[in-house]
Specification:
The chain has 6 helices and 16 strands. The longest helix is centred in the middle third of the chain and has 10 residues. The chain is elongated and about 65 Å long. The N terminus is likely disordered.
Length: 308
């Protein structure tokens, strides 16, 4: 496949171009879309309704079209539809760490949610910040959604097609997330695995808890440094349960600093749960490029324990 070079700040790239190989000679467009490019049946249906959704050698093509060696198949990956929910734009700072025409990675600040909520109507949102800078027609697809208080790397797909591919890669070797957290005390041993199922806490509308009938949840931790009764830890979530890292650290007696829900609220120490999405290793779902990105520890966490 051919991909124009694009990086942060580049213009839109919503077209996949594939040159049909000798092995694919005689295949239909539908076969290539499903078997090689992994479009869902629903996505293919949307493509057929778009004016330039599918082109073969520059001309509009049906999914039943027979392809031959050397043919150039071009497919748009845009959504071809307006956003389902109207987003209110907001002029909120949102650093872009990496971007091309298919996805972008932001460094989300604390206090910002992914989407607007009826419970927090005035809270800054990633969707609103992107609508401000990209226009209200920008269709927002969050992949690894972060809690309001969690900072760091968050992946946003620019189409439902790319979003679907990325969601399939979550919790695999193609999408590895590494977090930093400041916890109370120093876990013993200094590195280990927490394998404890997580389910709803029936006494709360939002809290989760370790319970035997919960969903499987596995987290790996490693202590990087300790001082003044706090520890900086590296965390790898193997699964993706709600509040997983916060619940797991609390379950071993070391809740995150500032965690008002699973530990002790202490605004003089830090005004939020001390959790940061620090590093990401991602196989780009379209180009196959390996992205290795990091976001430095934010000031409020670095003030508690600097990185070693």
């Amino acid at each position: 496949m051919c991909y124009p070079e694009t990086r942060k700040g580049a213009g839109p790239l919503e077209t996949i171009t594939r040159i049909i190989s000798a092995e694919e000679d005689g295949s239909t467009v539908r076969h290539i879309l499903k078997a090689k490019l992994h479009f869902s049946s629903h996505a293919i249906s949307r493509l057929t309704r778009a004016e330039n959704g599918i082109l073969v050698n520059g001309s509009h093509a049906r999914t039943t079209c027979i392809l031959h060696t050397g043919d150039i198949l071009q497919v748009e990956t845009g959504d071809h539809r307006p956003p389902k929910v109207e987003v209110t734009p907001g002029d909120w700072p949102l650093p872009i760490v990496w971007e091309d025409g298919h996805l972008l990675v932001v460094n989300k600040p604390a206090g910002m949610t992914a989407h607007a909520s009826n419970f927090l109507p005035d809270t800054p949102t990633v969707a609103g910040a992107l609508a401000w800078s990209r226009g209200t027609n920008f269709v927002f697809h969050s992949v690894n959604r972060l809690d309001k208080g969690t900072t760091g790397l968050m992946v946003v797909a620019k189409s439902g097609y790319v979003h679907d591919l990325l969601r399939r890669s979550l919790h695999t070797s193609r999408f590895i997330r590494e977090y930093r957290a400041v916890c109370v005390g120093c876990p013993e041993p200094g590195a280990g695995t927490i394998d404890a199922p997580i389910g709803r806490d029936e006494t709360s509308t939002i809290a989760r808890m370790v319970r035997p009938d919960g969903q499987s949840a596995v987290s790996h931790y490693e202590v990087l440094s300790s001082q003044n009764g706090l520890s900086l830890v590296k965390l790898f979530p193997e699964t993706g349960r709600t509040h997983q890292l916060r619940v797991h650290m609390a379950s071993i007696g070391h809740p995150l600093a500032g965690d008002w829900l699973y530990g002790t609220e202490d605004p003089d120490l830090i005004s939020r749960p001390a959790l940061h999405s620090y590093a990401l290793t991602l196989t780009h779902p379209v180009t196959g490029e390996i992205l290795r990105l990091t976001a430095p520890l934010p000031e409020d966490m670095a003030r508690l324990i600097p990185e070693p």
